Amino acid sequence: MFTRSDFSVWSILKKCIGLELSKITMPIAFNEPLSFLQRITEYMEHVYLVHQASRQPQALDRMQSVAAFAVSAVASQWERTGKPFNPLLGETYELVREDLGFRFISEQVSHHPPISAFYSEGLSEDFVFHGSIYPKLRFWGKSVEAEPRGTITLELLKHNEAYTWTNPTCCVHNVIIGKLWIEQYGTVEILNHRTGDKCVLNFKPCGLFGKELHKVEGHIQDRNKKKLFVIYGKWTECLWGIDPAAYESFRKQERRGEPRRKARQGDGPEKADSDEVDDVPAAQETVQVIPGSKLLWRINTRPPNSAQMYNFTSFTVSLNELQTGMEKTLPPTDCRLRPDIRGMEDGDMDLASQEKERLEEKQREARRERAKNEAEWRTRWFYPGSNPHTGTPDWLYAGDYFDRNFSDCPDIY
Prior knowledge:
Elements: H1 9-13, E1 31-35, H2 36-41, H3 48-55, H4 59-75, E2 83-85, E3 92-97, E4 102-110, E5 115-122, E6 127-139, E7 144-149, E8 152-156, E9 161-165, E10 169-173, E11 181-192, E12 198-203, E13 215-221, E14 227-234, E15 238-242, H5 244-256, E16 294-298, H6 314-317, H7 326-329, H8 339-345, H9 349-372, E17 382-386, E18 393-397
Parallel strand pairs: 1-2
Antiparallel strand pairs: 3-4, 4-5, 5-6, 6-7, 6-8, 7-10, 8-9, 9-11, 10-11, 11-12, 12-13, 13-14, 14-15, 15-16, 17-18
Helix pairs in contact: 3-4, 8-9
């Protein structure tokens, strides 16, 4: 990582109070060496939860795995205080992970407002995951708030089911002075469009003494609003679930001040698919586990040098890797070929800054040229439409990306 201490953040930010941050050019010192399109790909880190959902015969069990996946999708943001690079119009990113059973493609489909569209599918044809995201960024004097507008859709093909939700709001505190820290808050509602079941998850704001920091609490209900399952935990650590009656009786006992039976290792909680009982991180104890709970998800341990590497996870560290011969198969618009991000990753901050300015100027010039010729920008892999399940405006995958005909891709770098 590059040290940010030499910069007066305030000199830049005082011009921005209350403004939309996407229109402001920030110095490169605030960035991390990834594009926002790569950041979206991090939703896929815990994709085993989607494969797991697809294998469950019961709708309630499927919703538990989908809820865990929705929470795990924001877990990589923990302690990630660098800002990803704004994608250029027409920029793309692809990721094929045969070991994890998925492939993923995203494209920057609009510049003002910035909209990123993505589409992913299971290699064994068990799921399709897609959406379009246009984060609304605001600066509030001491913090920067990102409200992620746009619908996320997960389709489990074998069950003919679609789930939709929107991510919580993310806030980075102390952008001027002090230690940067992140919280996520807001209500996430996941709807199963076939059964009418809904999972309501509350990402708690930090609260007065930080007691609620990172906490997630919620429940799954059926179409008649009957509670079927209670979910609790932290988006930075793990998620547990329990039967509503057991949860209520535990809370009653707590209120009456009765001594609680401590949950021991292997006592009651069931073991989730990819969970190793031995390897429990030390911070695990901060979620009080109610006896009889079932583990739905646990965060992957980060690599030991993560703090020097922009707090990236092992999954994230690999996203910008350009393997030998890869550039022959990638379109010229892929983030891995973007020179300012590559310069920053190589530690050449001057080159990265110059390249970032050059690319932004090239983008402005292309926009002026289009305006002069009254030409419309044409997206390549996505088209505007409406979400087939919610009816709201969305960007839909046009297909054919993996045929690898990249002859008419724009020259953006």
